Amino acid sequence: MRSLAFSVAFLMYTVASPAQDVFSNSTNVALEKVIRDFPNRFHNIRGEVVAQHTKSTEYKSTIQVPGFFSCVVTHYSGADNEAYSWNCTAYQSRDFTLARNRFKEIYDQIENTIIKVDGEKPFIVSGQYRTPYEERKLTNIDFELLPATGEMKNMKIELILQNLQSEWKVSLNVYDGDRKIEGSVTSN
Description:
Blueprint: H1 2-16, H2 26-37, E1 46-52, E2 56-61, E3 70-77, E4 82-93, H3 96-110, E5 114-115, E6 123-126, E7 138-146, E8 155-164, E9 167-176
Antiparallel strand pairs: 1-2, 2-3, 3-4, 4-9, 5-6, 6-7, 7-8, 8-9
């Protein structure tokens, strides 16, 4: 009973303590900043334009995750819809084992992260791990915020391990799940 009381007290302290987040690491610190700007359509984290296409514009993200290759915010515009996404490439390699290990490492950094957004109760990032296999060209993990309320219900967080032209790529995406984005990766 004493052990249970101690565990409950520790959990409450962890959730309530803004200065000392037990789950703090560079990936979830950056992810928290991105999630905070989701309701603003990533307006506050859009940097300079890096590419412009017929139906989309890519901006350099002002939020960069240490150890990741590149982070971009993309604005998709179509005849009847508009959507935004934040995407970071975490790893690229021809070696499946190294890519799989990086995928698992990032999953471990994100899973059960506590995210604090102004004016909201803290959220817990939760997603079921899927073991990647080399024969499967795509493995993705969809995370959700618990408890998701309001506009945050539509937000999707996705960790992807994908084989593209014999190279394995690990990426982390945050986007509006209510809007269909042409060319986006889908679950298998």
